[in-house]
Amino acid sequence: MRTIDWVDGAIEIIDQTALPGELRILRLHTVGELVAAIQSLAVRGAPALGVAGAFGVALAAKVHADDPAALEIAVERVSGARPTAVNLARGARRAARRLPSFDAVLAEACAVRDEEIAASSAMAARGADLLVELCGARPRLLTHCNTGGLAAVTLGTALGVVHELHQRGHLAGVVASETRPLLQGARLTSWELSQWGIEHRVAVDSAGPFLMARGEVDAVIVGADRICANGDVINKVGTYAHALGARRAGLPFVVVAPESTVDPDTATGLDVPIEDRGSAEVTPWAEAVNPAFDVTPYDLVTAIVTDQRVIRPSATA
């Protein structure tokens, strides 16, 4: 099942806010519905957001074919629905270059979808090869947030590597950090690992570095929402702490993300707007700091695996 697709004139997504209790499919017919789904995290993950951006422009072209001003506003709404992940705006801009033809826009959006599917397979193979090289034949991995098919279209990024290792018989175990504030690790990653028949444990976020220090993990593998020109990695909040823990324990810290997530126009993590999701998601009785993402400096990153290459930013640190 695809996380996001174009079906009979509308966008269909798996509603990730309903998992793991219910596998619910949403049909989105308007840009407003899509933007709401993006902002509520019903659809999320950098590759999936890139596809959502492209399909969102197709929706806009379909609905506002005779109103250029409304079409422009709708495209901007899609592009800006979440500011941190580069893929959303990039997918929207790419599809928008084919305006005003709806057919051309839809064809481009489907091409974005198909490229992400192919990228997941390429990353899985390349990442699995690298993890065996770094850790030996049966690594025990810690992962953060959700980076499986729910974050892409199928298979995923970092979790796609986990799946590939499992398929090869080269996986000794997985720890999935719960990932505050919306428990995307405990809810989504755990659900996907269960679907694949992969044994795993869920760990509270703050336990990750301790588990590394105690020798229960061989490597950390995560995804990314943006990779800056210098190799700084923007990912779900908590990633930086895991990178620090991995460095202290002497473990590889590997990032897996499609080439479309690499942003050569953003010099460092200091230049990236970090979304804060407000206090309501955390607690109703106090003001809370609730950044959705953090910045892991490039010198803490052992390797970045894309569908096209392996980058080793820490080698230049």
TrEMBL record:
Signal sequence annotation: none
This protein's UniProt keywords: Isomerase
Record flagged with keyword Magnesium: no
Gene3D superfamilies (UniProt xref): translation initiation factor eif-2b, domain 1, Translation initiation factor eif-2b, domain 2
Top-level taxon of the source organism: Bacteria
Pfam families: IF-2B (PF01008)
GO biological process, one term: L-methionine salvage from methylthioadenosine
UniProt xrefs under InterPro entries: IF-2B-related (IPR000649), IF-M1Pi (IPR005251), IF_2B-like_C (IPR042529), Initiation_fac_2B_a/b/d (IPR011559), M1Pi_N (IPR027363), NagB/RpiA_transferase-like (IPR037171)
GO molecular function: S-methyl-5-thioribose-1-phosphate isomerase activity
Family: Belongs to the eIF-2B alpha/beta/delta subunits family.
Protein name per the record: Methylthioribose-1-phosphate isomerase/methylthioribulose-1-phosphate dehydratase
Lineage: Bacteria, Bacillati, Actinomycetota, Actinomycetes, Micromonosporales
